[in-house]
Write a structure and sequence with these properties.
The chain is an alpha/beta fold. It has one domain (about 35-225): 3-Layer(aba) Sandwich (Rossmann fold), CATH 3.40.50. The chain has helices spanning about 5-35, 80-85, 100-105, 130-135, 155-160, 165, 190-210; strands at about 45, 55, 70, 90-95, 115-120, 145-150, 175, 210-215, 220-225. It has a seven-stranded mixed beta sheet with strand order 5-4-3-6-7-9-8. Strand 8 (about 210-215) and strand 9 (about 220-225) form a beta hairpin. The radius of gyration is 20 Å and the shape is globular.
């Protein structure tokens, strides 16, 4: 084998080893995070593409008064939102990047019955949308309205989730991404331990508020309030 090919082969083997190491590490971290908070078994259904899809409990599809979906972090893949609309749900999308919204509009991907709002979801800036703000996007909404909260907001989930304690009655289903946990460099052990502690504290609070995971898919967490 030519020297160049041998170098490429070694590089490929090293890359595969590193990928497997990170995969194993993430699996261990998820095990630590969900220790004592087991996933409950309920009939579920997946909506959307492999990239942009989420799981939902099947029971919500037969309800007469369906929750309103607040979808934070649309990006360019709104397959989940479109399937929820097809299933009879009202969807309100929130996206911080106006360029993503412009793209969706330019390609006629947003149906007429879907409301879109441009803004940041979180608590770090004075003009960020809080969880309470999200329930007021439509002033005509009834105080009795319940919501499904979906968040893919690049780490700002940790700013929003603590608000669920006071508003838990309004949010029976919450799905969110913890992908920021997987993006920590393998050597940053101190940072990883710090974030694990933060997430575990948050999970204990959510559990005390009645939330239970019904699906954990990679770093996508799906909660239902019992």
């Amino acid at each position: 084998m030519p020297p160049k090919n041998r170098i490429l082969q070694k590089f490929s083997l090293l890359e595969n080893f590193a990928h497997q190491l990170v995969k194993t590490q993430n699996s261990v971290v998820r095990g630590v995070l969900f220790r004592g908070w087991p996933v409950i078994k309920v009939p579920i259904k997946r909506l959307g593409t492999d990239y942009g899809g989420w799981w939902m409990p099947e029971e919500i599809f037969g309800q007469n008064e369906k929750p309103v979906v607040i979808s934070c972090g649309l990006g360019l893949d709104i397959s989940f939102d479109l399937e929820m609309i097809s299933a009879g749900f009202t969807v309100r999308g929130v996206e911080v990047e106006s360029s993503s919204v412009d793209y969706l509009k330019a390609h006629s991907l947003i149906p007429g019955q879907m409301q879109i709002f441009v803004g940041r979801v979180g608590s770090k800036t004075s003009d960020s949308l809080s969880l309470s703000d999200l329930t007021k996007l439509d002033p005509r909404q009834s105080k009795q309205t319940r919501y499904i909260l979906k968040m893919d907001i690049e780490g700002a989930e940790m700013e929003v989730l603590p608000e669920l304690i006071d508003l838990r009655e309004k949010f029976p289903i919450v799905v969110f991404e913890l992908d920021f946990m997987s993006l920590i460099p393998f050597t940053s052990l101190a940072l990883r331990r710090h974030r694990i502690r933060l997430v575990r504290v948050l999970f204990r609070v959510l559990r005390s508020a009645g939330y239970q995971p019904f699906m954990v898919e990679n770093w996508n967490v799906h909660l239902i309030r019992l």
